[in-house]
Design brief:
Order of helices and strands of chain A: HHHHHHHHHHHH
Low-confidence stretches of chain B: none
Structural class of chain B: mainly alpha
CATH class of the largest domain in chain A: Mainly Alpha
Number of helices of chain A: 12
Helix content of chain B: 55-70%
Number of domains of chain A: 2
Oligomer: heterodimer
Structural class of chain A: mainly alpha
Largest sheet of chain A: none
Largest interface: A-B, 61 and 65 residues
Number of strands of chain B: 0
CATH superfamily of the largest domain in chain A: Tetratricopeptide repeat domain
Number of strands of chain A: 0
CATH topology of the largest domain in chain A: Serine Threonine Protein Phosphatase 5, Tetratricopeptide repeat
Distance between the termini of chain B: 75 Å
Shape of chain B: flat
Mean pLDDT of chain B: 87
Radius of gyration of chain B: 20 Å
Low-confidence stretches of chain A: 70-97
Mean pLDDT of chain A: 81
Strand content of chain B: under 5%
Largest sheet of chain B: none
Shape of chain A: flat
Distance between the termini of chain A: 44 Å
Number of helices of chain B: 10
Amino acid sequence: MTNTTDRYLIKKFLRNELTSEEKVAFTNRKEDATFLEALENEMIAVQSRQELKKKLQGIGADHKVQKTNTPKRFAPLGIAASVILLLGTFFFFNQGVNNQELFEEHYTSYPNIYTQKGTSDNDKTLFEKTMILYDAKQYPLAKQNFETLNSERELTDGEQFYYGITLLELDDTKTALTQFKNINNTASPLYKDAQWYLALCYVQENNVDQAKLVLTELQEIVGKKKQEEIKTILNQL
Amino acid sequence: MNFLFRKKESYTDSEIISILTSRKKHEDAVLRFLYAEVQPSLTKFILSNNGNRDDVEDIIQDAIIVFYEKVKNNSLQLEKTISGYIYTVGKYMWYNKLRKNKKQVRLENNDFSKIGLDEFDVELFHTNETSFVKELLSKIGKACQTVLQQSVFEKIAMDQIAQLNGYKNEQIARNKKYRCLKELRNVIEQSTQYQTIVNELCYD
């Protein structure tokens, strides 16, 4: 971590507020590798904070819209203002951001439903070893194992399913989408869950039509509570 | 498998830390949650201390940024809850702003160092600094900015950076980062602000 004096000099330099004495101190430190690295890092942080601020401003605007949208009788102007603000926000930030947020709102990782047999490490199959990595959230390593399995033989529905979740955790939506699409046997115990994640992949890919199609079909085969959840997302889409 | 259809509405403190330190995918949801969590208390505090609604939003955003960065840098000094921490940061930021604007304020305790903050944390954005950095970073290009932000600020692992940016492997991402830092160093050294200081002292 940057020491206090270096941080002070760096911030004052960036703010163009160094006094004559501080300029001497800055010049004396400018050849030091640690100091230069700290200066570079702070510059990147300044820029990153700006971008994070924009994101938080968007969140703040959404909060305001939600509050204004609370139904009130005889308040047409309020509703109109909310709609204008909502549309403004919608067009200002692009549609991809909204779908990304929708994805993140509804995405949760999936627990490992495969119980581990009490065998030693040597006796475990590659899939069992992969699921240990999955449990430990070691997704890049789990992905490598799934790729190995995939190159050796056709993956089972369970393997494809967890391969898909692993890819989603690594932001590789396109490849994940293929895995969930492959689980197309309606009799498979993972079919409904795979369809759910498939829909979320479409949401993240901004393919609203396909997302709606999958969700509408899924709505027909799930329980009442889940139907309500899907209805909410369809409305959000 | 009912959990799939559960809408995630709240996070525990340890979940928040865990998501911000490892699972990028849920970051936005966590930020939305934190915003909603601290909004009532900071609104009440700022409105009753000479502030308006715009000040409230501004302070909430800046206080969350400070928290976010401390988590990423592993330098968070958390004595109570996360929302309590963000509230305290926001409070100090507001005191600092009032002090700068020379407004009368009932300053109870302005010792922000107690929670690991310094004067630059409580005044997060500074016009000179923002425009200077923006100008310099624009010279290294968007791709470089992205890689450096992901690596330095968001602390994303290099293998993930490679994936996010479509680089073939981790080594290529590392090389890219190295080249971008080198470029940034050149840009700093050639900047008028830097050159002025160096030349000024040469002629003294």
